[in-house]
Amino acid sequence: MIQPMLAQAAPVTESISRGQELIQAAYRWLTENGLRFTASLVTAVIIYLLGAWFGRVMHSLLRRVMIKRGLDETFASYLANIAHALILMLVIITALGQLGIPTAQFAALIAAAGLAIGLALQGNLSNFASGFMLVFFRPFKRGDFVTAGGSEGTVEEIGIFTTTLTTADNRKVVVPNAAITGGTITNFTTNPRRLVIIPCTVGADNEPSKVRASLLSAPTGNKYILRDPAPVAVVTVLGENKYTMELRASCPSEKYGDALATLNEGVKAALDRDGVTGPLAAIKVLQEATRTPIRSV
After folding, report:
1. What residues have CB less than 8 Å from 199, skipping those under 6 apart?
2. How sure is the predictor about 142, in pLDDT bands with cuts at 50, 70 and 90?
3. DSSP-assigned beta bridge partners for residue 152
4. Count of CB atoms within 10 A of residue 31's CB?
5. Which of 14-18, 62-66, 163-167, 290-294 has the lowest mean pLDDT?
C-alpha cells in the first residue's frame, strides 16, 4: 500500500525539483545579466522612438524640399512615403541588434520571410507596382476629380498601396492601386475647360430659331460660363411631335458643378420667358386641329 503511494508521489517531487531548478537558473541569469539586458532594452526602445520621430521629420522635410524644387506634389509624397518606410525598417533592425539579436541573420530572415510574404501577398505587390505606375505616368494628381477603380471623388493621396478619394458627399474612399490601373480612369479636371450640355426637348410647333435664341440668352451674365469659345445651340434629335436642342457652353473644369446648376436654372427661366412650349403642348394643339366636330342630324 505504501509503495504505490510513493510511486505516485515521485513524479510530483521530480516536477517540483525541475521547477526549483528553473527558478534558480532564472534568478542567476537576472543576477548576472539583468542589469545589462534592462539597459539594452531601454536603449532599444529609445532608438526606436527617436528613429520613428526622425522618420516622420524626414518624411515631412523631404516632401517640402521636393515640392519647393518644383517636383509634383503627388510624386513628392510617394517618394517621401517610401523613404519613411525604409527609415523605419533600418530603425527596427538597429533596435533588435541592440538587444543582441544578430542583424545579419535577421536580415536573412527578413529576406526569406519577404519571399514567402511576397508569394502570399501578390496582390499587395501588384498594388505597390501600380502605385509606382500612377506616380510615374501621372494620369491624375492630388486635387483632381476622377472616376477610377469603381469610385468617384477628389484625389487626396496616392499611397504606396492605395489611393484615397473624397467623394462629393464628403466620404473617404480607399481604392487599391491595382484596381485603378486595371480599369478605366476618367479625369474630369485635368483639362482646363469642360463642356456643359443642357438638352431641351420642345414641341415641334416651336420655331428652331426662337428656341435657339432663347437658349443662347441663358448664359448671359453667368460668371461660371466662358465667353470664348462662345456657347452654341444645335438640334440633336428629331421626333414626330418634338425635337431636342442642346445648349453647349464651356466653363472652367473646377467650376463644372456650379456652372451646370446655374445654367439649368437660366435655361428654364429663358424658355418660360419666351413662351417655348413642350412636347405635350404640341400634341394637344395637333389633337385640337384634327378633331372633327359632331354634327346633329
Report:
1. 236, 244, 245, 246
2. confident
3. 147
4. 9
5. 290-294
Is-contact 287 203, C-beta < 8 A? no
Q: Read off the pLDDT of residues 177-199 as tens digits, 9 standing for 90 and up.
A: 999 999 999 999 989 999 999 99
Buried b (16+ CB within 10 A) or exposed e, 62-97: bbeebeeeeeeebbbbbbbbbbbeebbeebbeebbb
C-alpha cell at 54: 526622425
Q: Can you say whether the dihedral through the CA atoms of 259, 265, 268, 274 is positive or negative?
A: negative
The reported pLDDT for the residue numbered 135 is 81
Domains of the chain by start residue, with CATH:
24-118 (1.10.287.1260), 136-187 (2.30.30.60), 193-284 (3.30.70.100)
**Count of alpha carbons within 13 Å of 237, Cβ hemisphere only?**
13
Nearest to 90 by CA among 132, 51, 56: 51
- The three cell numbers of residue 50 are 527617436
Q: What is the pTM of this model?
A: 0.58
